[in-house]
Amino acid sequence: MEKSNIRDTFDEKNNLIKEYNNRKLLIRNKNSTLWNCVLIAKRDLAEVSDVNEYEAKEYFAIIKEVELALKNAFDYDKINYLTLMMVDEHVHTHILPRYKEEKTFAWMTRTDEWRPWPTTPVKDSPSQEVLDQVKQEILKNM
Does the model's pTM come out above 0.85? Predict the structure, then answer.
C-alpha cells in the first residue's frame, strides 16, 4: 500500500481550525460522528513513543481546549479518541464527540446510532460550506 500524505487526506488547506506549536487541529472532512476533528503532529512521527515530553504536555493542553470548545459548541454527551495510524502512518488522533440524541447544526442532522459502540464508517461528507461553519463555531468557543 502506498503511503498517504496525511495533510492531503484530511485536506489541511481547507479544514485547519487552529495551529499549535507541535500540532494542527482540523475538522474532519469525512465525519463519522457530528463534527469530529483530527489532531495531527506537525513533526514527521510514525510512532506515538517518538513524541517528546514537550509535545506530550502540549497534546493534553490541546485536548482540554478542544473538549471544552466542542462541549460549548455542540454539547456532546461523551467524547472518544482514536490513535490508530493504520492507513495514515503519521501520529494523529481522531476526536469523536458522541451524542445520545439527534443533533443538527448547519443544515446537517445526525443520529449517533452506534453509541456507545465504535462509530460507523463515514456515510457522507459535509460540504466545505458546512465544514467552514463548524470550524468557526469551534473557534468561537476556544
Answer: yes
Task: Give the other-Cβ count within 10 Å of 6's Cβ.
Answer: 21
- Kindly list the domain boundaries of the chain, sorted by start residue: 6-140
Mean pLDDT, consecutive 10-residue stretches, the chain (142 aa), reads 70 95 92 85 89 95 97 92 78 90 81 70 78 93 93
- Closest alpha carbon to 27 in 38, 19, 18, 42: 38
Closest to 107 in 3D by CA, of 126, 88, 124: 126
86: left (phi over 0), alpha (psi -120 to 50) or beta: alpha
For residue 29, give the nearest of 132, 141, 109 by alpha carbon.
132
Architecture of domain 6-140: 2-Layer Sandwich (3.30)
